[in-house]
Design brief:
heterodimer; A: mainly alpha; Four Helix Bundle (Hemerythrin (Met), subunit A); 2 domains; globular; B: alpha/beta; Beta Polymerase, domain 2; Rossmann fold; 3 domains; six-stranded parallel sheet; four-stranded antiparallel sheet; 10 strands
Chain lengths: ~290, ~425
């Protein structure tokens, strides 16, 4: 059943993506409206998938890389659906939907969960931790896209070669405002996510912060975004600079999501979720003795 | 009935000839009523703009009507019809319809896609209607024309993107700031172009205009006109802190706004974007400032480049518009064809109805004896026999497949059913 809804969500996202691309190329407005509807329908179907997975394995479904990637896509689409209501930048969908679609396709090729669920993860704090982090990530993903769109548009205006994208992209002011709004949405959620994560760790392992690679990289991301927000508010870091930092920030964030899992090992790695790493077992032992 | 356009425009006739013709036609009161005197015109419409003088008419004897109009125009210009001939164009039937569509959609204008022409045609039509010179054909044609022009406007990019310097500047400002209301404009120096740009910006509801000029009196005068603020040239640095858009057009031989100055100002402005439009020749603003973050500089050449690019784009879009013109022209033709077969269809029906009435009378005695329900049934039966008999000849008439032989078709049906007599009586 969950598989069916997942496929539904995937196909709806793909058709939405196609629609948004057609909209961008041919400038047919109703196309964008339809695509928005498709993404919304996909999002609902996706939400149902996640709920069903939850029911199946008994905890929030972010144990495998595939599940997490799908949840990341869910968060991006969700934040987009909300942002779109406020900003109404149709062309944003043309940039965002391919990103989400690629994540969903990758997710569909990744192996599903095998073996028993990890009892450590059967905890409500997992949902709070991962949920808030990923809503934050969704915000940063859109801030990243806004940054990319800003740089393209700025390049066109500065170089005085007004190409096809010039007419299709919104004004610099709107893109900058979008970037800012996504940052102020993403930052508190990232902060909450990190705090709830440390509470979760303390609750299950008896320790708040372990300098795990993922934790370190998240901290770096957090510091970068904190600096950017500070710069924006105090020193007027707007436009190009904010766009660049948002892009770098999201790339680091993507690295701490992807790279940390594959390049370095830590207890945040998906492989460690299945068979708890030795050090985690030790921590657990120590906690039980205490 | 044939639709004809006779006219001259900026491409075919020099301006003084167009002026003289307009003058002559207008001097006889409303030009339209004077056309009523010309024989052979059934419906007319008269259009004059600064680039064209045209008359559109529908006529049963188009050859004669064309000659009459040309003769009338030539007479008014005091030249012979053969001298007038090379400066005018005559479009007939489908060509005339397409020409009108093209004119209304501004495909035939000096500046492709300019919006005024449609309004001028609407005005001409209103005038024609008020003089009762239009009928079924032109009414339908004009309404079709308006919808075709609208369709072209919305389905092609023919009217998108500015093709004048000042509009191009406003368009750019909107791509930087989105909403111009609430923005402040600093005008340095005054000139026709700068004033035009300022007017456009005011139309976009900018909040305030600050005018800086070498002679303060002139600045005050302009500031008063736009309810703005006048400052001296020395006050420009502080005005730069306030303004969002700067239009510079002084006659100064040297640059008056330099890179270090703007760099410094941007820090004080906390990087709020600043858009410079330098329409002075020689330039007023150091080109290098375009490299500063959140500062955008366009000079006269840049703006002209954009205008040229937009013009080229409109020409490209015009090709698509021509396709719509063709398509709509065909639709109109088939309507006109149907209109032409209508009298024959009416005559056919009338003839059948007459036969039915005749038979009814002949058999009056027998029919009287029936109940009213039975009478009704007989009447209905006769009616449906008529409908079924007429179905094929009527579809034959309406069939657009044989458009070329339309007259022959009408003639054949009229001969078979011997309708000519009946139609002449009407």
């Amino acid at each position: 059943m969950a598989f069916f809804f997942f496929k539904c969500a995937l196909s709806l996202y793909l058709s939405g993506t196609l629609g948004y691309i057609l909209f961008m190329v041919f400038q047919i407005k109703p196309m964008a409206r339809i695509s928005y509807g498709l993404l919304l329908a996909g999002f609902l179907s996706h939400s149902l998938t996640i709920a069903l997975w939850y029911a199946q394995i008994g905890h929030f479904p972010v144990q495998t890389f595939g599940e997490s990637l799908s949840f990341f896509a869910w968060a991006i689409i969700g934040v987009y659906l909300l942002i779109q209501v406020r900003f109404n930048i149709l062309v944003l969908g043309s940039f965002l939907s391919p990103l989400a679609a690629v994540m969903m396709i990758s997710s569909s090729f990744l192996p599903p969960l095998t073996g028993p669920a990890n009892p450590l993860l059967q905890n409500i704090w997992l949902m709070v931790h991962v949920g808030t982090i990923f809503i934050g990530n969704g915000g940063f993903a859109i801030a990243f896209l806004a940054g990319v769109m800003y740089l393209i548009q700025e390049r066109q205006i500065k170089s005085k070669h007004l190409g096809l994208l010039y007419h299709r992209l919104p004004s610099l002011e709107v893109l900058d405002a979008l970037n800012y709004n996504c940052l102020i949405l993403g930052f508190p959620f990232l902060t909450l996510g990190m705090l709830s994560g440390s509470v979760f760790a303390h609750y299950t392992l008896g320790i708040f912060w372990r300098w795990d690679p993922k934790e370190v990289w998240s901290l770096i991301t957090w510091l970068l975004y904190a600096a950017l927000l500070h710069g924006r508010l105090v020193a007027g870091w707007r436009g190009r600079r904010s766009a660049m930092i948002s892009i770098v920030g999201f790339l680091i964030l993507a690295f701490s999501f992807l790279g940390v899992n594959f390049l370095v090992k830590g207890y945040h790695s998906f492989s460690a979720f299945k068979v708890p790493a030795i050090e985690v077992q030790e921590l657990l032992k120590r906690k039980n003795i205490r | 009935m044939e639709i004809v356009v006779i006219g001259l425009n900026h491409k075919t006739a020099p301006v003084d000839l167009r002026e003289r013709l307009t003058g002559f036609l207008n001097q006889k009161g409303p030009a339209l009523s004077s056309f009523k005197g010309i024989t052979g015109l059934k419906e007319t419409l008269f259009l004059t703009t600064c680039n064209r003088v045209e008359t559109l008419f529908a006529s049963e004897e188009p050859d004669q009507a064309i000659q009459n109009v040309v003769k009338y125009w030539a007479g008014g210009l005091l030249i012979s019809p053969s001298d007038l001939q090379p400066t005018i164009y005559i479009y007939r039937a489908d060509e005339a319809v397409r020409h009108l569509f093209r004119v209304a959609a501004s495909l035939d204008s000096l500046v492709i896609g300019e919006p005024q022409i449609l309004g001028q045609i609407k005005e001409a039509y209103r005038e024609a209607v008020s003089h009762h010179t239009t009928g079924v054909v032109l009414n339908r044609l004009l309404h079709k024309t308006f919808s075709v022009a609208k369709r072209i406007r919305s389905e092609t990019g023919i009217a998108s993107h500015a093709v004048s310097i000042s509009f191009a500047a406003v368009e750019l400002a909107k791509k930087i700031f989105q909403d111009l209301s609430g923005k402040k404009v600093l005008l340095i120096g005054a000139g026709e172009m700068a004033e035009l740009a300022a007017e456009h910006l005011l139309n976009n509801r900018v909040r305030k205009i600050i005018v800086a000029n070498r002679t303060l009196e002139r600045a005050i005068e302009l500031a008063r006109r736009w309810q703005g603020q006048a400052v001296s040239l020395e006050e420009i640095p502080s005005a730069l802190l306030e303004a969002d858009i700067v239009i510079s057009s002084t006659g100064a031989p040297e640059m008056i706004i330099l890179y270090p100055q703007v760099k410094f100002i941007m820090k004080q402005r906390k990087q709020r974007p600043l858009f410079f439009i330098d329409i002075a020749v020689p330039r007023d603003i150091e080109p290098k400032i375009n490299e500063i973050d959140n500062v955008y500089l366009y000079d006269m050449d840049d703006l002209q480049g954009i205008v040229a690019q937009n013009m080229a784009e409109r020409k490209q879009e015009a090709l698509q518009a021509e396709r719509i013109v063709q398509e709509e022209g065909i639709k109109f033709r088939s309507w006109l064809n149907r209109l032409e077969v209508v009298p024959t269809i009416i005559a056919l029906r009338k003839k059948m109805e007459d036969i039915k009435q005749g038979e009814w009378k002949k058999n009056g005695a027998v029919l009287e004896g029936l109940t009213s329900e039975q009478q009704k049934a007989v009447d209905q039966m006769a009616g449906s026999i008529i409908n079924k008999v007429l179905h094929d000849p009527i579809s034959f008439l309406k069939d657009p497949g044989h458009e070329e032989h339309k007259d022959e078709k009408i003639d054949r049906i009229q001969k078979i059913f011997n309708l000519n007599k009946g139609m002449e009586e009407d």
